[in-house]
Amino acid sequence: MIRFILSDLKRLWAGSLVVVLLVSLATALGVTVTLQERALRLGTARAADKFDLVIGAAGSETQLVLSSVFLQAAPLPLVSGETLASLAKDPRAAWAGPVGFGDSFAGYPIVGTTTSLIDNTSGGFVEGQGFADGEDAVIGSAVDLPLGAEIKPMHGAAEEGGHTHTEIVYHVQGRLKPTGTPWDRAILVPISSVWHIHGMEAHESGHDHETAQEHEAHAHDHAEGEETGLNETFTAETPGVPAILVKPKTIADAYKLRQQYRQGNTLAVFPGEVLTKLYATLGDAREVLSVVALGAQGLVAASLILVTLTHIVQRRKQIGALRAFGAPRSSISLIVWTELFALFATGIALGFAIGFAAAKIITGMLIAKSGVVMPVEFAKADMTQAVLLLAVAAGLAILPAWLAYRQSPAEALRG
């Protein structure tokens, strides 16, 4: 029987190919949506793991997390140096590190921070070492620069009309181990040098709540000719920063710090909470796309039923001949069911492969842009979905098999 089925499929290869392609494309749409949404959730959650608490000036929670954790630069209002100094000395915090951004080099974001933050979040160096003075730089694992390379920071981006700072040239001193986060594509420099080249000296602390862009307007009036050093001691006179990343010592300390700084002119957020809200939005989008995918699968199923019924009508004489030569009804029905189910199953398997490949390609493009490693992988739920689709395919193949079972050989040969 298997040899007969294979011979039959070979003879009707064009129609068989159409059926397989229809099923595979409809399946691939749903698989791609599911895998891509899961990869995005897993990747962003892992990227935020190292950052328990983010504190900034009052404003958007989402933008604060996107800018500080995922390095999506935006003109955030600055939180005061007094807040930074207080957090650096707070016994409830294991460490507190400022982040300052707005500059870039060769498409890589330049982030001002401290040795403490680097030591506690990077996992160490692949080569080289950390900051020794204010003109040193440390690069992430994905930054395509050699040790000793010169970095001339540009304010903003070249395509946006940014200008290159002439006050300082950084030199790459070390390369960090991979973290699977956007920080792998970052160039890290001392926060004190960022303040220096933007004209944000201690006596300007009264402007702490201006945006970074507004501070840039003062840069050239104050930065020219001054030397920059490695200063990681913070006081009430310290310039403001867009965000402060904090590692609380305990869960209780985390909630206490969050409560304390979530009022007045400051905003404190758990990145995980903000991401949960984003996931809810992504989940809504996924539901919409899943409905679209189900609709496509329904249309494909309806068209396949029509195709298979037409196929049975066209094969009436063949079925009649088989019956006339003594083939039992059950064998003919089994042949028809097996042929159709084999085509459906092949299409489903191919659809899962196409969906996986498509999700990999989309994820690769997102990783190149964001630096967030997003794992594309199947889960138990996907296997359940595959079994369900196979069950539906088995059910759809029953109708043509039943029609073949009921067909009279005499009528078929007369037709």
Determine the structural class based on helices, strands and strand pairing: alpha+beta
Rg on CA atoms, Å? 31 Å
Uncertain regions: pLDDT < 50 for 5+ in a row? Answer: 203-227
Separation of the first and last Cα atoms:
26 Å
Average pLDDT score = 79
User: Which percent range describes the beta-strand content?
Assistant: 5-15%
Number of strands: 12
SSE succession: HHEHHEEHEEEEEEEHHHEHEHHHHH
Tally of individual helices = 14
Shape descriptor reads: elongated
Described by strand count, sense and barrel closure, the largest sheet is: 12 strands, mixed
Q: How much helix is in the residues? A: 40-55%
Can you walk through the features of this model?
The chain has 14 helices and twelve strands. It has helices spanning 2-11, 13-47, 61-68, 81-89, 115-121, 191-197, 212-216, 219-222, 251-261, 271-314, 316-324, 329-370, 380-406, 409-414, and strands spanning 53-57, 93-105, 108-113, 125-128, 136-139, 150-151, 154-155, 163-164, 170-176, 187-190, 243-248, 266-269. Strands 1, 2, 3, 4, 5, 6, 7, 8, 9, 10, 11 and 12 form a twelve-stranded mixed beta sheet that branches. Strand 2 (93-105) and strand 3 form a beta hairpin. The longest helix is centred in the C-terminal third of the chain and has 44 residues, at 271-314. It is elongated. It starts with a helix and ends with a helix.
